[in-house]
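Reminder: ligand-aware prediction takes two inputs, not one.
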Amino acid sequence: MSEFGWGSTTDEVLAGKDLSGRTVFITGANSGLGQETARAMAARGAEVIMAGRDQAKLDEAVAAIRTEHPKAQLETLTVDLTSLENIRAATSRARQRFQKIDILINNAGVMATPFQHTHDGFEMQIGTNHFGHFALTGELFPLIERGHLKRIVNLSSRGHHFAPVDFDDPHFTQRAYDPWISYGHSKTANVLFSVGLDARYSVLGIHAYAVHPGGIETNLGRHMTEEMREALMARVTSRDSGFQWKSIPQGAATSCWAATAEELEGKGGVYCEDCHVGEVDDESSTGGVRSYAVNSSYADRLWAMSEEATGVRYPS
Ligand SMILES: NC(=O)c1ccc[n+]([C@@H]2O[C@H](COP(=O)([O-])OP(=O)(O)OC[C@H]3O[C@@H](n4cnc5c(N)ncnc54)[C@H](OP(=O)(O)O)[C@@H]3O)[C@@H](O)[C@H]2O)c1
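Here is what comes back for the chain with NAP:
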């Protein structure tokens, strides 16, 4: 049983841990939970590769972390998850610059975007949140294989309760676009990707974990209109009358826990929230993971669809 919970912070979860010699790669590290995860891990001695799509924003995030931790070992890498070509170029640079990755945190994400498409024609939310990370992780695999105590953490969300992955219409070509169904199924894909990774690569000592960080006020809500924000809050509070926002260090704590907790060693393919492993639950509106998100046949189906869509082949 985890000693941490809803209100635990990054620094509490990592207290006493020595991450020196470990390399952590974090996407979306210039903002919100990604930046705080980078700060907290660098504070414990990790070398952190901060990935983002805008060098100026990455530089600002590095400067902010260094004001608190002047000796933080921080590197930056620009990568835009909406372009397979950009992902291939960025990961090729990463393979030249870095020796290994011990912990990969696929944290970047968008929520409730208008109906838009990535450079490769994927609907924007599943394209960024899932296909982009599927391609990135596959291209970084040679570095991950060289890591120690290898873990991959995929940021999902309780929003995965909104929808299973629609394998027949992943890009909303045959139905009306709904920004919440789209976010929900992209976040279900993040859990299924964790299940698929763990099933294939635990034999290589690589374990994968999905994380719901909680509700945290970050830049994630930037695409919501005021009306959408009010409707979302009404929906959240009707399902969870005790809903409270977490602070950013509380929100990033479950990523830090999933990436480092000793009690999780060898126990991947799970969904974590509030610094513990969530139960499979198809009814609860206040926690747990839906069975469709941890179903191994759906995970295989998503894997095959993602290899086909991105052209990225993982080692067999
Ligand atoms: N906050 C919450 O309540 C909450 C709840 C559940 C799950 N989550 C998940 O937690 C993760 C982190 O979210 P956050 O709350 O920290 O949001 P955030 O502050 O908006 O950070 C998201 C990060 O993703 C990056 N990003 C977006 N599109 C990208 C792209 N095409 N290529 C590369 N990077 C891209 C953003 O870069 P730019 O700054 O350049 O846009 C930013 O660095 C997300 O996966 C989200 O779904 C958050």
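The radius of gyration is 18 Å. Residues 190 and 255 are 14 Å apart (CA to CA). We will return to this case in the review session.
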